[in-house]
């Protein structure tokens, strides 16, 4: 069976390979996750409202440059990580946001689709210069030890949907459910991008945010179209078990999405409805071990963890 979904990179994978990929993704998230606490008081430091404005601006810029949702999600993740690491004055926020998008594009996009630095600044309509962008790019990478390919909620959204497709096709004949899920995936990418613009949702781990959004969408679908044969609660519990997500965290994220997104008029879940409570798991395995590369490693090799940065 071949599975092909727009935006997914899991075509033709089996259940075992997908679950193994999810385990590695969870392990990578556990190793690299950094808690986010956003400034609410200090006037000389970027606050949560300014962070949200920058995230919304990044979404518009990424869309205008035809970058994927995964690029946008990584740029916001880099922005949040940097703000959680250093105090940033508001006047530097635009250059920081452009730098995060520049790095994310180099990690996720094809090389020939990324403008050279001076053109990138112009396309972003940014007030910083090309040299300032390059200095900011280096500062960001140095703070992250020259690694930037972090896990985002888009990564989990992709693999969750691939697993749902595989599970749906194994239980039902025909392509009705598959068509519905494919349509929902495209729609949920846009909704996930909107969620990333809220600093309160950015405090949840990517695996939780992605699953909470999927659960709300499937629940809404079943309420509006009960004839559709998708057992949303069983599907979400299945993914929750695989991703080892605790029920209280999932419910908290769902509630916040509902408050921030009025379109979700669904029945509120109780904790007892989700039976699975996660157990601790071993996160010591490495997702991308370093490998020997002939010649000088490329930018993508360094920031995506495929090669160590050259000694200065």
Automatic annotation (TrEMBL):
<keyword id="KW-0195">Cyclin</keyword>
<dbReference type="InterPro" id="IPR036915">
    <property type="entry name" value="Cyclin-like_sf"/>
</dbReference>
<comment type="similarity">
    <text>Belongs to the cyclin family.</text>
</comment>
<dbReference type="Pfam" id="PF00134">
    <property type="entry name" value="Cyclin_N"/>
</dbReference>
<dbReference type="InterPro" id="IPR039361">
    <property type="entry name" value="Cyclin"/>
</dbReference>
<keyword id="KW-0132">Cell division</keyword>
<keyword id="KW-0131">Cell cycle</keyword>
<dbReference type="InterPro" id="IPR013763">
    <property type="entry name" value="Cyclin-like_dom"/>
</dbReference>
<protein>
    <recommendedName>
        <fullName>Cyclin-like domain-containing protein</fullName>
    </recommendedName>
</protein>
<dbReference type="GO" id="GO:0051301">
    <property type="term" value="P:cell division"/>
</dbReference>
<feature type="domain" description="Cyclin-like">
    <location>
        <begin position="56"/>
        <end position="142"/>
    </location>
</feature>
<dbReference type="InterPro" id="IPR006671">
    <property type="entry name" value="Cyclin_N"/>
</dbReference>
<dbReference type="InterPro" id="IPR048258">
    <property type="entry name" value="Cyclins_cyclin-box"/>
</dbReference>
